[in-house]
């Protein structure tokens, strides 16, 4: 069996997250099937990030004496790193930019982690974490890559692969379309790695969705190379990133079908719709539905289309 899936299956509390069919919403969109992969309870945490953090902490720290696991976060990743550091007997030092909700910071501290607030933006918090991780007993477990720092982020992407391995067993056939919320693009990389490994006729279209205030994937695709965007304020805190991961970029450049952006009110409206249909979604998790509901959704939909929303966080994440 795939070693990452075997590892996740060995963790206490592991269960595949549910796939929920949304026939009413599919009808109103004029498509055949709409599914939501509901990540509101992933290994006891309210976002998919636990998959990457658990595997990367395991790979990076197994056999090490008690160390300090360091990362920057806009919420979910830091909480997951803090959780798995604690469970494996390590300390955690988490760097957060402004804009991370107070409840998300408290949840990180409740895992026993030391939280440092960094002025500036998410990229500044990543730099602060990388600097702190130069200490002798520290290990950086960051969910974005840059030249010279790619091994650990690669493990994080491998960890996200479990979500797609589960989907293969849960859906009758691969969807025609999957919509992925993108911050630095590591989850997008995992989706592209998974669905681009298939023969061309069975190809799943992969579409990214970002907050309009932090659309670094869209800007990079438009430029034809990675560009850093100045990020603004958005309630989609987990997606408020200005730079695409260097590991994700080649996958995005070669394989992304289309990208789009949404505004916060659209994400909130989509979260309410999902809740009304029995799916617990925070604003990042609702962004894929918000994208699909936009009149300018970048790909054609047809009465035969089966679409999958990655609902990457529950409301408790924010
Ligand atoms: C809830 C949620 N969805 C999606 C993402 C996007 O993941 P990535 O940064 O790998 O693009 C994040 C990242 O923090 C997140 O917290």
In brief:
This protein is of the alpha/beta class. The protein contains twelve helices and ten strands. The chain has two domains: 3-47 and 154-317, Rossmann fold (3-Layer(aba) Sandwich), CATH 3.40.50.1100; 50-152, 3-Layer(aba) Sandwich (Rossmann fold), CATH 3.40.50.
What is the topology?
Elements: H1 3-10, E1 19-21, H2 23-29, E2 33-38, H3 50-61, E3 68-72, H4 76-87, E4 91-96, H5 102-110, E5 114-117, H6 122-132, E6 138-140, H7 151-170, E7 177-181, H8 186-195, E8 205-211, H9 216-223, H10 248-255, E9 258-262, H11 264-276, H12 283-293, E10 306-311
Parallel strand pairs: 2-10, 3-4, 3-6, 4-5, 7-8, 7-10, 8-9
Antiparallel strand pairs: 1-2
This protein binds pyridoxal-5'-phosphate.
What does this structure look like?
41% of the residues lie in helices and 16% in strands. The protein is of the alpha/beta class. The strands form two sheets. It has a six-stranded mixed sheet, with helices on both faces. The longest helix has 20 residues, at 151-170. The protein starts with a helix and ends in a 7-residue tail after the last strand. The protein binds pyridoxal-5'-phosphate (PLP). Pyridoxal-5'-phosphate is lined by residues 47, 49, 74, 76-77, 143, 181-188, 238-239, 241, 284-285, 312-313.
């Amino acid at each position: 069996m795939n070693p990452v899936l075997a590892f996740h299956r060995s963790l206490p509390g592991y269960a595949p997250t549910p796939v929920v069919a949304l026939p009413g919403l599919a009808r109103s969109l004029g498509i055949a099937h709409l599914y939501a992969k509901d990540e509101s309870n992933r290994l006891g945490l309210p976002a998919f990030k636990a998959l990457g953090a658990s595997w990367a902490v395991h790979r990076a720290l197994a056999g090490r004496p008690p160390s300090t696991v360091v990362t920057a976060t806009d919420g979910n990743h830091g909480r997951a790193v803090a959780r798995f550091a604690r469970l494996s007997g390590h300390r955690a030092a988490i760097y957060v930019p402004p804009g991370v909700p107070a409840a998300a910071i408290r949840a990180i501290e409740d895992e026993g982690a030391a939280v440092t607030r960094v002025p500036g933006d998410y990229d500044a918090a990543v730099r602060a974490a990388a600097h702190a991780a130069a200490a002798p007993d520290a290990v950086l477990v960051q969910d974005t890559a840059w030249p010279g720092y790619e091994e650990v982020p690669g493990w994080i992407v491998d960890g996200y692969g479990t979500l797609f391995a589960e989907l293969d067993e849960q859906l009758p056939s691969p969807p025609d379309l999957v919509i992925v919320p993108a911050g630095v693009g590591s989850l997008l990389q995992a989706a592209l790695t998974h669905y681009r490994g298939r023969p061309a006729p069975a190809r799943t279209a992969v579409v990214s969705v970002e907050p309009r205030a932090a659309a670094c994937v869209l800007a990079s695709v438009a430029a034809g190379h990675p560009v850093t965007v100045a990020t603004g304020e958005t309630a989609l805190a987990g997606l408020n990133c200005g730079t695409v991961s260097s590991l994700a970029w080649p996958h995005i450049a070669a394989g992304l079908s289309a990208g789009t952006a949404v505004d916060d009110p659209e994400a909130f409206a989509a979260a309410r719709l999902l809740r009304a249909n029995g799916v617990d979604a925070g604003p990042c998790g609702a962004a894929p539905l918000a994208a699909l509901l936009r009149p300018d959704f970048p790909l054609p939909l047809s009465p035969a289309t089966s679409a999958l929303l990655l609902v990457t966080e529950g409301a408790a994440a924010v």
